[in-house]
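Ticket #402: bound-state structure for magnesium ion.
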Amino acid sequence: MDKIKMTTPLVEMDGDEMTRILWKMIKEELILPYVDLKTEYYDLGLEHRNETDDQVTVDSANATLKYGVAVKCATITPNAARMTEYHLKEMWKSPNGTIRAILDGTVFRAPILVKGIVPYVKNWTRPITIARHAYGDVYKNTEIKVPGAGRAELVFTAQDGTQVRELIHEFDGAGILQGIHNTEKSILSFARACFAYAADTRQDLWFSTKDTISKKYDHTFKDIFQEVYDTEYKKIFEELGIEYFYTLIDDAVARVIRSEGGFIWACKNYDGDVMSDMVATAYGDLSMMTSVLVSPNGVYEYEAAHGTVQRHYYKHLKGEETSTNSIATIFAWTGALRKRGELDGNRELADFADSLERACIRTVEEGRMTKSLSLISTCEHPVILNSLDFIRAIRETFDAMR
Ligand code: NAP
Ligand code: MG
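RESOLUTION: The complex was predicted; output attached.
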């Protein structure tokens, strides 16, 4: 069999710990035998980030802007313990944060559904994708612990020195204060990424805020989304037969629970933080969540939603057997290969990605899975496989399907 040719390289961002081990296995067992793989490789493993003073992360993001599609392995975000473990020169920032800032992107997270792993919400038969705005609000707040009586005001000083003042509260005793902000530019990028991704995946887009209470702050989010829809996406959505739907956050929560899924739910930063954990848990397993970073101008970076699975890695280092689920990382590869195929008019490559995804799902549905999946599967006699054997089982299914 001839291998599938590629015309444009994918940006490949390697990572850390257990997922780095899986990365190599996935490439060797599931990609390289079938695809004449072209990638521009960046090693985002913590050691190499440290050696390059994290320049490699910046370079990989710029390469993504150049080529349009990247696939990323999970990476360590350093903390105090990692400083000593890896003898770091500095506590390097989260690679995801750095890449997101350069791509000006929004993260979309969606569950991978398989029969036998039943969502806690019975009627969720299709995936719900959460898009979380990743800038501002309470995550860039300024807080004061008010010690006693006094007046709190909100003051904005324009560059010409003119001021706008609003009374926040006349305190007659101790209390608390918080200042938050967002920018029109960031909200606009968020809105554009959401509409672009909805059109790309042909799914309805829902957006929710609390604009009835927050008549300026949240209302601005609502207005910007509506304007992007009206001026840039209305026609496209009508042609695709998909809808943009705005509702209040509390109404959205009620409707999401009653829905069957199959749409994108765009959330403000805090709502997205909270709701993504709820949705992920309700679908079953973090190791079955995919994640894609989409920039407002249509650049895509695919990854798994989980981290480097550190605990499994330490077992692996001790020579113990691991049963780590590679599906979300495989879907990061298939997502990127499919997108590359679409952009290059390379049908074979996109079809390969689709088939490999079906092979993953079929393998689990036929009862061969990793340990964590067996714990939540309704399959009566699951065969529990180790990390490598699970990937090999997917390969067997894939070969049998061809
Ligand atoms: P994690 O890697 O997501 O793992 C947390 C736990 O979830 C694991 O210990 C394991 O549970 C389970 N799990 C996650 N993925 C799994 C998989 N594919 N198969 C089976 N079980 C899986 O989170 P963490 O341990 O908190 O973080 C480890 C490192 O990842 C940190 O350094 C963090 O900075 C980094 N991280 C990176 C990203 C990213 O690059 N996008 C995201 C999150 C975290 P059991 O141990 O109970 O089996
Ligand atoms: Mg959270």
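RESOLUTION NOTES: The longest strand covers residues 163-171.
TICKET STATUS: resolved
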